[in-house]
Write a structure and sequence with these properties.
The chain is mainly alpha-helical. The protein is built from 7 helices and no strands. The two termini are 23 Å apart.
């Protein structure tokens, strides 16, 4: 049982490490936006599948339709309110690989980092929650969250570099956030595993609602802006692969 507690933290850190990976490539390399957008389209499909067949399916099994709908709408509401606030603080494009040229004055690397923490906590809790039933992490959920974190690291490191941040400070910040995601996943497994199943159901639905709102507000627009007519196809491929992974 101890190994399950440890692994919940490990999987949370793995998902958060994508922020470090994105920051590394964003700081030292110039990644084509089209390549990142393609990854995001694929990740969007994986994420939609994980929400449908992992998070919501489990929430419905544990709590029924009332808990599912309540948590789902609450998660979307929480994300929307926070997202509006972060947009005003300069984190409007935190899920974009490179922010628009005309948005330089409105962007803030630190605001993007703060947004990443707020995005990452429910996502990582969801990773831990997927381990409660059988002790094994949902691979589809893990991959989806990992892919969604890469552009945040990319966009933030570009902004922080322009603001004069040293690489040591940037990577120390993202390492700290990765540790927070690890702890969040650990809490999702250890704490919620001891609570009534109705609370777990609502929490799963809240995470699903917040992630879906984030996906529609940030990842899909970025993916379409660069891949255009290919975005739908790439998203469908990601969805199909994730669905198959959830059934293995």
């Amino acid at each position: 049982m101890l190994s399950n507690y440890l692994m919940s933290g490990v999987w949370g850190f793995v998902a958060g490490s994508a922020l470090l990976l994105g920051a590394f490539f964003g700081y030292f390399f110039r990644i084509p936006q089209r390549a990142v957008a393609t990854i995001m389209a694929f990740g969007a499909g994986v994420l939609m599948s994980a929400i449908s067949f992992e998070l919501l399916d489990e929430a419905y099994s544990l709590g029924g339709p009332t808990h599912l709908v309540t948590g789902f709408l609450l998660g979307a509401l929480i994300f929307t309110v926070i997202n509006i606030y972060l947009t005003r603080k300069g984190a409007k494009h935190r899920k974009r690989s490179i922010k628009p040229d005309d948005d330089d004055l409105e962007s803030s690397g630190m605001a993007i980092a703060a947004g990443s923490i707020i995005d990452g906590i429910p996502e990582s809790i969801a990773i831990g929650l997927t381990m409660i039933a059988g002790g094994a992490v949902s691979l589809a959920t893990l991959v989806a969250i990992f892919l969604s974190n890469i552009p945040e690291g990319l966009s933030s490191s570009v902004g922080m570099k322009k603001e004069g941040w040293k690489p040591q400070k940037i990577f120390a910040l993202w390492l700290g956030i990765a540790i927070i995601t690890s702890l969040s996943s650990f809490i999702g497994f250890s704490v919620f595993g001891q609570l009534p199943v109705q609370i777990t159901a609502v929490t799963l639905a809240v995470a699903a609602g917040g992630i879906l709102a984030m996906l529609v507000d940030t990842m899909i627009p970025e993916a379409f802006s660069q891949t255009h007519n290919l975005a739908g196809m790439v998203t469908v491929v990601g969805f199909a692969i994730s669905f198959l992974l959830s059934r293995i």
